[in-house]
C-alpha cells in the first residue's frame, strides 16, 4: 500500500470542524476550493476570511510529489536544510529522463545506462530522507499519483506544473518550483496567494466523438493561456458528475495550459468507483463519511455567479471535438473547421505522427476509446497514413492494457509502444523520421504544444486532441479529416467511415500489475551515504547564493525578450534535461530560446562591454566575470509553462539581478523570489518600449524595498540621456527577507541554526 491512510483519516477528522468554522467566518456558503484551502491552513485556525487574489496565506499540504528532472535540484536544495527526514509524505518519480526512440524495452535500458548516476542519486536521497521512490519505467508522476496517492479533499504540491492532474480526484493539487517543495519537506509552511475562483458549470452529457479532453480544449479557447492566472477552476453541475474520474483528471491536467493555479471537481460516484478500482476502498469509505465536505455547498452551485469571480457554462450535449494548436494550446478549433484554417495559415495538412498517452490522457478509458478507433482501421482494412506512438502513463495501465489486448490493437497498426514515461511530451524523442527544420504536422493527446516541445524542431506544428481523435486523424493522415462526416478509402478501394469511439471507464477484470517499480521509504535512512562526484557533469552540490544587496547600479541589459517567453524559452528541456542537477552546466541554456527584441533573433545579444554579439549565457558570463550585474526585460506572461526553478536559478547563477516584465506567470514569479532575485512588473507597460539595447540600469530606492511600494529605476541610454520608470512588485515582508538573505533557502538554514 503506497498511500498513507492514517494521514488521510487525520485530514478527514479535522475537515468538518474547520470547514464549518470557515463558513461562519466567511459568512456564506463555500465552494469546494475554499473548503480545501481553509481546511489546510498552516496554523489550523480558521479565524480570518481571506481576500481572493490578494492575501498571501500559509498552508500545510498533505503530500509532495517530484519528478526526476525537478527532483534533482529540489533534493540538492533539501540536503542543505540539515533535516533527517522529509516532514510530509513525499514521492519521487523517474519519468522525464527516458528518451523515446525504438520502444519501451531498449529505450528504458538506454535510459538506465545513460542516467544511472541521476537515478542512483535520487534513489539514495529518497532512501536517506524517507521518500517513496518510483523507478524509471514505473510511470509518469501524475498518472501514478492519481492511481495511488490523490484523495478527495486533500492538498498536494508537486514540482511539476501538471501536478494539477490530481484535481480529477477532488484535490487541490498545485505545481510549484522545487524551492517551494523544499520548504514543505523541511517542515515549513507553504505560502500561496489566496486564489480567485472560476466556476465552470457543465450541463448535458459527453457523447459521440466528444470527450473530456474537449471540455478543457474548449475552456482553453475561452480563457486563453493567461485566463486562469491566480485562480482555481472549479467544475460542477450535472455534466461534471457524468464524467469519469480519469476524464476529470484530463480536464484538471490541462488547467495548467490556461495558467490556472489548479482545477478541481467535487467528490462524486465516479471518484468513488475509481478509488475502489485502484485498491483504495478504505479511502472511499472514509470519504463517504464526510461527503458533503468534499464538494461545494448546494447554494454555491445553484447560484454560482454569487460565489465565483467568473462563471463559464458549457453544455456538453453541444460540445464538439477540438484540435488546439499549433504552437499554443489555447488556439481552439472544432475539428470540422480545421482544414480551412490550416490552408489559410499554411499549416501542413499531411500528418506525420499521432502520439497517444502522456500524463494527460492515458487512462483505461482513453486507451479503450482510442483502440476502438484503431480496431476499426484493422477491421475495415484502412492502412494508417501516419506513424503511431503510445506512451502509457504507468506500469499498472500498461500491464492492464496489455492483458486486455488493447496494446495489441495498436501494435497491429505498427504503433511503437514507448516506455511508461514522458518521452515526446517533453522533447525526449529521437524521432525516427527526423525532419531537420522542415515544416511538418503531428497530432497528440498531450497537453503542451509550444514550438520545439516534442522534437526540438521549430517547424513541427503540433495539435492537441483527445486520444480517439488523434487515432482517427493519424489513421487518415490528414489534419483536415473530420471523422464525423468524412470517409476514407481502404486497401480494397472501398469507401469506409469510422464509427464513434467506444470506451470502458474501468477495466472489467480490475487493474493488475506485476512489477510496479515502487520502492517504499525505509524507517531509518540515516546510514545512507550520498556522494556526488566533483567531476560529474550531471550533478553538482549547491553553494548558497550571496545576497544581491540593495544597491543596484550600472547593471547592464542582458536581453529584452520579445513576445512569448515561456520557461521552455528560458530553460529549454529536451537534451538539456540531462543537466537538471548541475546548475553551472544547465546555465548554458539560459534564455537561448527567447527572441531578442533587438534584431528579433534567438540567442544573439549585445555585450555592452565589448560591443560584440554573442549567445545569452556567454554574454551573461562575461558580465559576471567583470562583476557587472545584468537585467532581463520581458513581455506579458513571462515564464508561463513549467514550474522549473532552473528558469530562475540560472539567471541568478549567471549574475542577473532583476527580471522586469509586463506580467509574470505565477510560479515563475515565485521562483525568482525564492532565489533571492527581483521579479518586477512595469507600472506602465508602455515603459517596455523605453528600454534600448545599450541601456544601463540604476535602482533609485531599493534601500526602501517594502510591500505594496513601487520601486523607481533610472535607465541611462547610450547617448547619455536618461529615463526613469516605476515598477510594481508583489513581495510581502517574508519574501523581502528572502531577497535580503540571498534566497529563501538561506533563510531556512539560518532559522534552523538559530
Ligand atoms: Fe511528463 Fe508531459 Fe506530463 S512531460 S509529466 S507527460 S506534461
TrEMBL record:
Coiled coil: none annotated. It is an enzyme of class 4 (lyase). GO terms for molecular function: 4 iron, 4 sulfur cluster binding; aconitate hydratase activity; metal ion binding. Residues 557-685 form the Aconitase A/isopropylmalate dehydratase small subunit swivel domain. This is Aconitate hydratase A. NCBIfam families: aconitase_mito (TIGR01340), PRK07229.1 (NF005558). GO terms for cellular component: cytosol. Its cofactor is [4Fe-4S] cluster. Belongs to the aconitase/IPM isomerase family. The lineage of its organism: Bacteria, Pseudomonadati, Bacteroidota, Flavobacteriia, Flavobacteriales. GO terms for biological process: tricarboxylic acid cycle. The keyword Lipid biosynthesis does not apply. Keywords: Iron, Iron-sulfur, Lyase, Metal-binding, Transit peptide, Tricarboxylic acid cycle. It catalyses: citrate = D-threo-isocitrate. Its EC number is 4.2.1.3. Pathway: Carbohydrate metabolism; tricarboxylic acid cycle; isocitrate from oxaloacetate: step 2/2. Pfam families: Aconitase (PF00330), Aconitase_C (PF00694). Transmembrane segments: none annotated. Residues 35-477 form the Aconitase/3-isopropylmalate dehydratase large subunit alpha/beta/alpha domain.
Amino acid at each position: 500500500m503506497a498511500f498513507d491512510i492514517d494521514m488521510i483519516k487525520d485530514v478527514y477528522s479535522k475537515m468538518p470542524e474547520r470547514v464549518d468554522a470557515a463558513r461562519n467566518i466567511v459568512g456564506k456558503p463555500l465552494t469546494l476550493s475554499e473548503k480545501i484551502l481553509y481546511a489546510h491552513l498552516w496554523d489550523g485556525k480558521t479565524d480570518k476570511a481571506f481576500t481572493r487574489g490578494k492575501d498571501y496565506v500559509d498552508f500545510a499540504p498533505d503530500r509532495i510529489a517530484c519528478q526526476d528532472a525537478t527532483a534533482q535540484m529540489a533534493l540538492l536544495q533539501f540536503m542543505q536544510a540539515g533535516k533527517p527526514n522529509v516532514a510530509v509524505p513525499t514521492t519521487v518519480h523517474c519519468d522525464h529522463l527516458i528518451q523515446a526512440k525504438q520502444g519501451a524495452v531498449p529505450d528504458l535500458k538506454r535510459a538506465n545506462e545513460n542516467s544511472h548516476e541521476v537515478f542512483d542519486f535520487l534513489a539514495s536521497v529518497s532512501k536517506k530522507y524517507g521518500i517513496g521512490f518510483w523507478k524509471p519505467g514505473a510511470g509518469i508522476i501524475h498518472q501514478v499519483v492519481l492511481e495511488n496517492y490523490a484523495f478527495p479533499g486533500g492538498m498536494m504540491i508537486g514540482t511539476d506544473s501538471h501536478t494539477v492532474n490530481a484535481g480529477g480526484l477532488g484535490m487541490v493539487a498545485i505545481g510549484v518550483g522545487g524551492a517551494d517543495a523544499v520548504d514543505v519537506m523541511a517542515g515549513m509552511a507553504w505560502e500561496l496567494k489566496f486564489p480567485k475562483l472560476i466556476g465552470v458549470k457543465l450541463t448535458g452529457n459527453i457523447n459521440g466523438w466528444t470527450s473530456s479532453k474537449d471540455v478543457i480544449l474548449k475552456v482553453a479557447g475561452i480563457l486563453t493561456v493567461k485566463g486562469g492566472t491566480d485562480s482555481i477552476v472549479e467544475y460542477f453541475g450535472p455534466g461534471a458528475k457524468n464524467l469519469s474520474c480519469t476524464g476529470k483528471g484530463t480536464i484538471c491536467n490541462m488547467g495548467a495550459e490556461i495558467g490556472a493555479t489548479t482545477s478541481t471537481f467535487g467528490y462524486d460516484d465516479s471518484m468513488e468507483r475509481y478509488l475502489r478500482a485502484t485498491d483504495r476502498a478504505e479511502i472511499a469509505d472514509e470519504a463517504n463519511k464526510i461527503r458533503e465536505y468534499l464538494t461545494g455547498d448546494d447554494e454555491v452551485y445553484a447560484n454560482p455567479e454569487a460565489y465565483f469571480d467568473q462563471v463559464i457554462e458549457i453544455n456538453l450535449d453541444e460540445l464538439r471535438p477540438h484540435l488546439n494548436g499549433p504552437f499554443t494550446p489555447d488556439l481552439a478549433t472544432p475539428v470540422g473547421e480545421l482544414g480551412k484554417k490550416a490552408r489559410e495559415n499554411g499549416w501542413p495538412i499531411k500528418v506525420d505522427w499521432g502520439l497517444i498517452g502522456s500524463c494527460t490522457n492515458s487512462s483505461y478509458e482513453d486507451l479503450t476509446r482510442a483502440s476502438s478507433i484503431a480496431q476499426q482501421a484493422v477491421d475495415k482494412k484502412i492502412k494508417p497514413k501516419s506513424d503511431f506512438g503510445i506512451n502509457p502513463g504507468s506500469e499498472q495501465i500498461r500491464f492492464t492494457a496489455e492483458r486486455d489486448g488493447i496494446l495489441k490493437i495498436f501494435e497491429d497498426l505498427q504503433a511503437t509502444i514507448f516506455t511508461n514515461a514522458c518521452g515526446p511530451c517533453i522533447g525526449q524523442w529521437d524521432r525516427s523520421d527526423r525532419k531537420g527544420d522542415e515544416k511538418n504536422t503531428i497530432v497528440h493527446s498531450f497537453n503542451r504544444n509550444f514550438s520545439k516541445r516534442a522534437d526540438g524542431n521549430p517547424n513541427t506544428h503540433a495539435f492537441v486532441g483527445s486520444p480517439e481523435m488523434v487515432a482517427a486523424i493519424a489513421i487518415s493522415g490528414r489534419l483536415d479529416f473530420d471523422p464525423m462526416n468524412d470517409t476514407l478509402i481502404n486497401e480494397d478501394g472501398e469507401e469506409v467511415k469510422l464509427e464513434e469511439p467506444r470506451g470502458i471507464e474501468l477495466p472489467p477484470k480490475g487493474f493488475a500489475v506485476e512489477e510496479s517499480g515502487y520502492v517504499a521509504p525505509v524507517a531509518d535512512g540515516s546510514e545512507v551515504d550520498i556522494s556526488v562526484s566533483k567531476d560529474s557533469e550531471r550533478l553538482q552540490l549547491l553553494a548558497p547564493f550571496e545576497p544581491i544587496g540593495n544597491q543596484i547600479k550600472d547593471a547592464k541589459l542582458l536581453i529584452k525578450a520579445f513576445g512569448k517567453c515561456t520557461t521552455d524559452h528560458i530553460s529549454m528541456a529536451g537534451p538539456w534535461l540531462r543537466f537538471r542537477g548541475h546548475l553551472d552546466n544547465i546555465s548554458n541554456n539560459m534564455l537561448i530560446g527567447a527572441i531578442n527584441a533587438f534584431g528579433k533573433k534567438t540567442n544573439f545579444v549585445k555585450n555592452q562591454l565589448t560591443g560584440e554579439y554573442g549567445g545569452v549565457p556567454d554574454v551573461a558570463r562575461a558580465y559576471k566575470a567583470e562583476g557587472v550585474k545584468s537585467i532581463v526585460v520581458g513581455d506579458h506572461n513571462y515564464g508561463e509553462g513549467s514550474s522549473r526553478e532552473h528558469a530562475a536559478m540560472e539567471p541568478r547563477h549567471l549574475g542577473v539581478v532583476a527580471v522586469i516584465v509586463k506580467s509574470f506567470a505565477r510560479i515563475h514569479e515565485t521562483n525568482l523570489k525564492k532565489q533571492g532575485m527581483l521579479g518586477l512588473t512595469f507600472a506602465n507597460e508602455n515603459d517596455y518600449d523605453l528600454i534600448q539595447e545599450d541601456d544601463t540600469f540604476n535602482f533609485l530606492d531599493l534601500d526602501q524595498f517594502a510591500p505594496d511600494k513601487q520601486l523607481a529605476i533610472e535607465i541611462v541610454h547610450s547617448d547619455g540621456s536618461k529615463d526613469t520608470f516605476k515598477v510594481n512588485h508583489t513581495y510581502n515582508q517574508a519574501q523581502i527577507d528572502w531577497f535580503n538573505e540571498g534566497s529563501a533557502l538561506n533563510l531556512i538554514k539560518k532559522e534552523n541554526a538559530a
